[in-house]
Amino acid sequence: MKRLRIALSAVWGFVVGDDWRTAAGVAIALGLTAIVAALGVSAWWVMPVAVVLLLWRSLAGALPGTGSSSHR
Amino acid sequence: MSGAEWGLAASVFLACSVEAVEALTIVMALGTTRSWSSALSGVGAAAVALAAIVAALGPALSALPIGVLRVVVGGLLLIFGLQWLRKAILRAAGLKALKSEQEEFEEQRRAAEVAVRGGAGLDGYSFVLSFKGVLLEGLEVVFIVLTFGANQHRVGLAAIAAGVAVLLVILLGVAARAPLARVPENSMKFAVGVMLTSFGMFWGGEGAGASWPGSDAALLVIVPAVLALSVATVAALRRGARPAQATASLPEATASPLAEQAAREVAVDRNLLTVEQSAVDRA
Hints:
B: mainly alpha
């Protein structure tokens, strides 16, 4: 059990890294793209908009007063 | 080769070069201060472990439907890419200390010199650290090769690009007999962040059902656009803060809140290094 927890923790660290919000944002953006595409509307624009927002949010989180860390 | 294939090869080459430089620094520090045979044994063991991982993961990835593969791989590349890009932008803007292989080498060498030595035979410290370093950096290489390659059904091309990168770094390291301090690592990381983010956005979107205007040719717009966004962000951040590379040693630089944050980050990095080293020493 302990080994499984260590393994899962290592996978989490490798995949998600130090910013789970970015990972969650990417998942949401992909889901949104799928929904928009399923509605028959052009969906390519969702990912670029998401990337701009996620990058800026991630950078803002690394600036003072946010309590966020980025030391991975 | 198509534009997308050139992009794939360049991305894999750059990313793998960066990882290889980092692994080489660790191995060289251990080899020169303690035991080349033990450090190289660690490299060999890590190579075997990586080969096993490739053998297990490669066929599994190839068996996935292309749509699922692109969503998963695109999403992962995007997560990796955005994190690389964030750090690269902060470094380029002077808000995070630049990474220096020479400093990393000296740090590793000092730690290796003071670590407890065993008797004759295999040096456990060199073996374990070398194994761990090569395995962790190698895992990223494996991930990049398999994901980029499987997505475009060009695993062979990705593997060749990775192999050339690793070989080149080893040859340069052997020729220089020193850490590759002159390799523009920070610029390469910036480029890799741009590429991972671009390919991740493209494949993730496509896998989720989006159709990019111009199909694969959209990458010729996406990559420069991500680059332009990143460069513009660096410029905007630079205007808002003074360079922070020196904040760790220059007290007056901590007058700015941004510089204070950068100084805290450097301190956290150092604490982490110390804690990691203590753990290794205890082991």
